[in-house]
Amino acid sequence: MKISLAQLEALFWAVRLGSISEAARHLNVTQPTVSLRLRDLSTAVGKPIMSREGRGVRLTPDGLAILDHAARVVGEVEEIYRKARPEETSGLVKVGVSEAFALAGLSKMLPDLAARHPALRLDIEIGTSGALERDLLSGKIDLAFGINLSSAPRLRVTPLGVQEAAWFTDGTADLPPVVRPHDIAHYLILTTPSPSPGFQQTTSWFSAAGLEPKQISLSNSITVIAHLVAAGVGIAILPRRLVQNRLGAGDLTALQCRPQIEPSLMCAAYRSNDWRPAVNAVVDAAQTVLDQLDWLKPI
Known about the structure:
- This protein has about 300 residues and is α/β, with parallel strands linked by helices.
- It has helices at about 5-15, 20-25, 30-45, 60-85, 100-115, 130-140, 180-185, 195-205, 220-230, 245-250, 275-295; strands spanning about 50-55, 55-60, 90-95, 120-125, 145, 155-165, 165-170, 180, 190, 215-220, 235-240, 255, 265-270.
């Protein structure tokens, strides 16, 4: 028996989606059909490739070895199809985005993707950049948009641009025109939990002067932090574009500061063995929308 494309697709999607039933739904076939294709693939290679684990699946070492090849084959076939029928890029992409990205771009990116690729489906998760990177490496998501994502060997990382940030207050604090760490070290400092980019920016800015803030309060939501700053509760480093409406309304005041705040690089990242056109389509749509919004500075 020869290995077929249908068998490789069954393997790829059963692993990607976590179950045979989900693979069957994605491939628009019955669950027994997917199971038969997987059994036929095991027969063709002469070794067991998969074992059932509750409703999920677990690959054997031989199955893991085949998976990378299956991903390449499926990706190449989809790329051929995408070039021939670009309007029909399809499939499910599990996307993780930072809160700033979600607030900045999703309202424009999702309609844009729906218009370009109506058969493409997205599952969206909001999380910190560190959590998104872990979920990407574990296979929980397929694509991440976050800050300062690492160039791990298993990941392909595409820098999208620099996300500008500044210190913000509600405007009532009596501060000099250019603030330095000793000017605000006694204020309540609001930031996201370690090891988030916001926490790193905040602590690095103070440590450059050999200082630590007397009080730090943590929240995993930068939207909540911006609200607390506007209410006069504390001071925080925030992405400029995220709070531009509050700036226009006078709720927040941006501070000039020395030293400069460490830059944050917005990135797209996916696993290097996931070459699907659907993933590239989402990255392209995100880059287009961010360029239209002028959200990021060029690198």
